[in-house]
Amino acid sequence: MWFSLKNYVRNFARFPARLRRNFSEYRLFTYFAVLGPGIIAANAGNDASGIATYSTAGAAYGYSLLWAFIPMTLSLIVVQEMCVRMGVVTGKGLADLIREQFGVRWTALVMASLLIANTGVIVSEFVGIAQASELFGIPRFITIPLTAALIWWLVVKGTQKRVEQVFLAMSLVFFCYVFSAFLAKPDWAEVAGEFVEPSFSFETAYLFTVMALIGTTITPFMQVYVQSSVVEKGMDKEDLSLVRADVIVGTVFACLIAAFIVISTAATLNKQGIYVIDSAATAAESLAPVAGNYAKYLFGVGLFGAAMLAMGVLPLATAYSLSEALGFEKGLSRSFREAPIFLGIFTALILIGVGFALLPNIPQIKLLLITQTINGILLPFILVTIVSLSSNKEIMGEYANKIYFKVIAWGITIIVSLLSLLLIGKTIIDMFYAE
User: What is the reported pTM?
Assistant: First the structure.
């Protein structure tokens, strides 16, 4: 008899603990049943702008910033866990909860900021697609419309399960960065040393590079997407341990990939005295003389896949948040007739991204600086909101943040918020200085 995988997972979760322990292979099966939101959200953070940031860190400072990935990984796990826990317990997306608990005005302010920031990043993802394709000699006027049409068709015509499967498959492309790092032949003893015995500098540029890494790793759209995805997937309290595992595995994988990007550029560009790059595509081009064309093309394939994944996730996160905030129907399994606002927002963002990315001489770096500033301003508000909501016993009941977890969460929020505000100040100064 045919039965849904979801029902299997739920029924299996109700088995006595003794029986579940006797079927370890089925526990692995149940994990794969809920696999998705945590991995997709974390990997979407390794987008074109993220790859450019990690490449810049490796080129400028070699392996010396690898230590930062340990606290960043732990911080992202804490933030993402709060979001999926809220989604599982309340059955509501983040924007839904913000509207209910903080009112329409606060929601409108947050959603407007998110829309502006995400739109800018979406444009940069299309530019990343163009740069990656041009590494292989394919004009952007071919790749941008084709990839946009493919992502649009997948989301609008596909089901939630199919979209998630394709996004997960796209995540496999990040292994290209692992291969490119090994082709770069780094000193692995030195790499390990920088993880366990980190060096540190109080130079302004070094500190702000650390802030940029944190801002790239923890971004507002990831929190919106992961919570809405968990809700749409129909996860409930019985699935919480598996959903948490998905968040942990996804975050660790994404941060390891980011570290490999730093390693590959540190072992090549930094060792050759190339300390400044202006994009991920430039980093890929610069790898060829040192690590060979294979490394260059692997880096380019990774950039293309990363931009494709983010190009799908970012518009979806924006469409989820705006639809939830306005109270409209949403969902990947909905048709245009059932969810016109949700799919209309998604379509409009894709068209805007295509239109701007096809313009000649688009100022990608300045665009990223502006969107980074907006995201930096928005991130403290989002983090404060997430910690407040997940600590609210009226909403979360017994699943509200415990005292020790609350201390950790508020500590992360305060530190990340201060670093984000400092990064905003530095970014604004740089923008005026560039003028």
Answer: 0.82
